[in-house]
Amino acid sequence: MPESTVRTRRRFLTGAAAVGGVTLTAGCTEILGGDDGGEGAAAGEDFSDLESMEATIAHPAPPGLNRDHRYALSFKNYVENATDGQFSVEIAAGGELGNETEVMEQVLDGVIEFNNTTGQVFAPFNPNVIAWTIPYAFDDMETLLYAIDNQWQEEFDRNLRENTNAMLMGPVYDGGGFQVWSANSRVASASDFEGMSFRTMASPSHQALTEELGATSEVMSWTELYEALDTGVISGQKNPIATFVLGNLHEVQDYIFLDNHQAMIQVPYTNEEWFNGLPAAYQSLIREAAFSAAMDARYLNRLNRSRQIPMVRNELGVEIVEPDESTLDELRSQTQEPVEEVIRDEMTDTALLDSLLEAYDWALEETGQA
């Protein structure tokens, strides 16, 4: 691990106001095929000379008003409307085709065409996706997305292609913000984690963070989580508040510790070999549809981040503990450097992590926050 200092989180403007919304610049054009967004040139093409296509997009969330289903619906509608149904997209929601890892395997094997899921699911296939999970290193989600869009996404996409049979469909989007802890007993400081058990994904950085705090990490799929909490098999879990609401976890958890410890990024991807075999017009259409879908999902996430904390507290009756700066400093000091060391040990290309940190610093400067 190179010489480093603890990265202090800074409190700046949050949400869309921090960067004036999401901006698409030259950093995304290789992936998106242009900067036309939801009104791209491919949507006006005549596809009648091309063969009809059927494809499936799978995601782990249930149907409804949530980021992943919103993404899938937006993608489906864009593609089908542009082609008058000649290219049809079926949505497989809620783990219909398997858990997150099983669906990823099917995409990489060419059985399913599209998947939008949390990047940490890639960890067993490509450990470099854990780059953004250094704890307490990023303060604002909109700034992080701005950095990824403009400075880092092309490099990330190249890394996916080199290490798996996957490629980005278009921009990433956040998984509802930063992860927080929920538990069936009150957590208010680093010492409160001792002896507790938390569900994590099969991501070394998630597991290392939990264990550095003195808790036990229990890896399990999203579909197993509710029952494990309900039966007391585990003490709690870590996810963004939007995911907490999505899973009705307020029914089995009484407390949230709002420390915003790790970024949650959703990665929409497809099978590269399958994509490269498509006609160019369909390729452009998929890129445009993916851009439109990501912007829809980001917009929904911004709305949810502004309203879900008071809703969880006042309507769902969950106690939300907000740590002060001294508590965050203690958490950062205890976890950041050892977890970053785990991340660097796991990654096969640590330059990807360094470039992300540089991109975030660039974004802070670019948006007047540093």
Notable traits:
370 residues; alpha/beta; D-Maltodextrin-Binding Protein, domain 2; 2 domains; six-stranded mixed β-sheet; 12 strands; 15% strand; disordered N terminus
Question: Could you please describe the fold and organization of this structure?
Answer:
Helix content is 42%, strand content 15%. It has 370 residues and is α/β, with parallel strands linked by helices. Strands 1, 2, 3, 4, 5 and 11 form a 6-stranded mixed beta sheet that branches. A 6-stranded mixed beta sheet has the order 8-7-9-6-10-12, with helices on both faces. Helix 2 (67-82) packs antiparallel against helix 9 (280-314), helix 4 runs antiparallel to helix 11 and helix 5 packs across helix 10 (325-346). It is globular and about 65 Å long.
